[in-house]
Each structure stands twice: as C-alpha cells, then as structure tokens.
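Quick one: structure for this chain?
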Amino acid sequence: MKKVNKFIIEGGKANAGPPIGPALGPLGVNVLAIVEKINELTSRFMGMRVPVEVIVDTDTKDFEVNIGIPSTAALIMQEIKKEKGAAMPGKENLGDISFQKIIEIAKIKMKQLRAKTLKSCCKTNCRNMC
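Got it. Here's what it folds into:
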C-alpha cells in the first residue's frame, strides 16, 4: 500500500522535525534518508518554499520524492534579489529583471502552467506580476 504525504519545505533546509518527522516516522521508513533526498532535490531553490510530495510504500519501506516548482513570484523575487514585496498602495518598483531571465523562469514554469508556447508562458508570467 502506498501512502502519499505532501509538504511545503524551504529549499535545501528540510529536517527530521515537524512536519516531516511526525508524518513519516510512524510509517517505519528512514526519515533521515528522505530528508537528505529532499535537500538534494530542492537545493537549487534555496530560500524559497517548495512543494514536496513523498510517496512511501508501507510494505517494502521504499520511498519516492517528487518536488514541485516554487511560485512565479518567488522565482522573480530571487532573480531581483529581494526577500519581500511592497504593499500595493505605493506600487513601489522593487527592481528590474531582464527579458532573458523572464524566459528562463517561463521555461521552468512552462509544464506547470500548461502553456502551449514559450511566448504564451512568458505573457502569463508577466501578467501574474503586474
């Protein structure tokens, strides 16, 4: 029987404490091995919140880790090197981002957005940030 657990983890900083440890410990799997695998897979999203899905086969104690993609806003904030955005009333300009970086982010998000073309994915990403 397979058990699916979903978590939101800060990239590269998963640990055996809550929420992972209490959820996976009773299943009898090696929680530290799962945490190491999560940190390995999410290391490129350091500092961002990443959706993680852990599938555990309770009979054989094997596990599979699938990571999601952070939000478009988080990817853009990482590119402009800001941690928090501004409130809406002031509409402060947080920074500039090159079109090349928008294309890179669109390529990362393309599968998740189900866009047919790179152009439509870029437009969707820009629309989300306006």
